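Quick entry between incubations.
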Amino acid sequence: MTDPVELPQIPAIVLVRPQMGENIGAAARAMWNFGLDRMRIVAPRDGWPNPAAVAMASGAGRLLDKAQLCDDLPVACADCDYVFATTARSRDLIKPVFSPEAAMTEAARRIASGQRVAVLFGPERAGLENEDIARANAIISVPVNPHFASLNLAQCVLLMGYEWMRAQGNVTAQQTQMAGTDWASGQEIEHLAAHYEERLETSGFFFPDHKVASMKLNLRNMWSRMPLTRADVQMLHGMMRQMVRWKERD
Amino acid sequence: MTDPVELPQIPAIVLVRPQMGENIGAAARAMWNFGLDRMRIVAPRDGWPNPAAVAMASGAGRLLDKAQLCDDLPVACADCDYVFATTARSRDLIKPVFSPEAAMTEAARRIASGQRVAVLFGPERAGLENEDIARANAIISVPVNPHFASLNLAQCVLLMGYEWMRAQGNVTAQQTQMAGTDWASGQEIEHLAAHYEERLETSGFFFPDHKVASMKLNLRNMWSRMPLTRADVQMLHGMMRQMVRWKERD
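Done. Structure below.
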């Protein structure tokens, strides 16, 4: 999943469970219009490669050739330090919400400080699931006419690309507040979340049944929202391991 | 050509000699996504009304019904005080050149002062003629990838609509959703830290002795560094309580 080091770092555009090949191709064109060429595709409905996508991408076909096909979202974000989720509807999940401009400025700032950033786009029909968004660090909300919000996938990608290009002008070399901090990767957060979910499941934490789904969602969302370092993650793993040892000791 | 006075003044979107009905319909949707509903159409290639435009405009059809059909550009701009011309290629003509953001900010300023503003978009194939641009007061140039500038008519309209909405100040600023968040108080964080420290102490987590102090410090530091909500804190208390119940169950 890692990009060759010699490539300039730019946000990865992650299409989550896209449906129409035409839209994947149109998204590739929208990306390349603003110099974005790092596409990742998670579980496309019609498989991959997709001839309809290639036909629509004319001029940006190279992005599809280079696109990284992923089985699921955790794999697609494994090497990412910060993940934005684009969403039209507001969600109950507590996350920072960025405007497209603020998000791409933040992305440029993080990338300048050596982080890897991804932006998630959901399926055409329904958009991202809460389970997807719970894995993201922040939400991007596009301001649209509340009486008519009909941006399609490629249009949403287009606006992010446009703001990314605009952000190239106003990037300051400013470092993150905790520069040098060894932040946990998306993959490490994913493993932590899975470890806790598994152990808490065994311990009977997820109860009653009708609340299990939302309890798990809230826990996921908490982990992905926390600015966790590698050391934090190791400590949290250790805490849970010790609680289990304690249980099994006698 | 004059809009009823009770209508709020917004820029008129003028499609000059558009070719494909589909693109006219897509432009209508792009406009309405950002609250623009004043469309003018100059000498459409395939005549007017255009069934293909209506089919594509689904949801924004009202804009087409209201669209003003004009024989030529001078008629379309007759009532306008300031006209922007969108163009990809740079021209020899001496005109002020605006970025989309600067143009829509300027448009908002002029409209607030009572002027009427229009934005011209050329035919899909070749864009505006120099004769068209010569009639405009200023040029809008969209920053795109110099190696791949393939914005279509509706996408160009979409970007202007987006910048128009941004110029209204409607844009939800960064992190709005976090604003109303019910953050845990320092005291609640303190109780959480104490609860975990006590239970982990009992479970034998703090080991070996010479590391106990730094382990406790790191744990304290982690809790205090995390942006925890009241709900997070309750969940974390519950997780630990359940691990203890689990231990004591048998």
